[in-house]
Amino acid sequence: MSNTRKRTRRSSSRSCSKVAAAAVVATLTTGTASSFLRPTTTNYFLSKRHGYNSWCGDGSRRANSLFVATSFTSSSMHAPTNNRGINYSSHSNQDDTALPLTVSPQDFERKIESFSSNISRLRVKKKRMATENETSNTTEGKESLTSKEIHAIHDALVGACNSLVYFLKEEATKINSIVSTQGTEATIGGSKSIILDSNTIRSTRENIAMALIQAIRASSEVGDFVLLPKIVDAAVDYASAFLQYGILHVDAFVEESSANEGNGSNRQFALLQPRIFGEAIASLSKTKASVSKIKAIWNQFVHDVASSQRHTLGQDSTLSHHVLDSPPSSFELNAMISALGGRGKIRAAIKLYRKFALEEREGCGTMIEADAYTASILFGMLADSISLPAGEDGISSLQGKMDNRDAGRSDKDHSPCWQWNEAIDLLETFLPHQLNNVAYASLLKVNAKATEAYGKELKRHGGVSSAMSVLDRMKNGRACYLQKDEICPDTVTCSIIMSTFDKGHHWKAAISLLNAMQVSSGSIKTIVPNKASVEVTNSTKWALPSPNIVTYALAISACVRCNKREVVLSIFEQMLTQNSNLAVAPNTWVYNAALSACVESCRATASKSKQGMHLATAFGVLEQMEANSITDRNATPDTDSYNSVLSMLGQRILLEAKKTNTDQKSRLSKYNRNSDIIYDILDSMERQRVSRDAATYSNSIAACFSQPRDVIKIFRKSILDLRADGATKSKRRKANADMVLVANSALTAAASLGDLSLVSEVISILSQAEIPMNLESIRLIIQSLGKFGDCEGILALLICLRGQEFANDILKDRYSINILDNLPSKFIPVLDEKVYSVAITSCLKHDELAIAEQILQSMKIKGLLLTQRSLNAIIGEYCRMAMESSKEEYKAARMAKRNGLDDSKYEMLEPIYITSYSRTKAALAMLKAIDKPSPMLLGTVAKACCASGLWQEARSILRRMHRAAIQELKASASSTEFEGKFLSVLPRLHRYLLKFCAKGGNITPALNFADDIQYLSSRVRVHRKALLENISNEDTDVNVASLSSLLLTDIPANNGVTLDTHLSETREITKMLGRPLGLTGQDWKLLLIAAWRGGHWKVCVGTLPFIRPYAKETHPKHSRELSIDDDGELLHRKPSIAKLNRKYEKIESGITAAMLCFEARSQYAWAIRAMNDWIEWSGRRPPKQAVIAACRILAKRFRGSEVLNLVSKVLSIDDVSNAIGNGESLEYTYEKAVYVESITALHQHGLYDEADHLYVEGASHGHLPLGVVHNASTPNLTLDLHGMSAAVAHSCVRVFLQNEIIRLQPLSQSPREVKWTKDIIIITGRGRRSGQKFKPVLRPEVQRMLTEEFFPPLGSSSIPGNLGALLVRSEDIVAWMNHQRQQKGERMLIVADVLRDISSGSRLERALLSSGNRLERVLKRNLKYLNQRQN
Question: What CA–CA distance (Å, rounded) separates 621 from 634?
Answer without folding.
Answer: 15
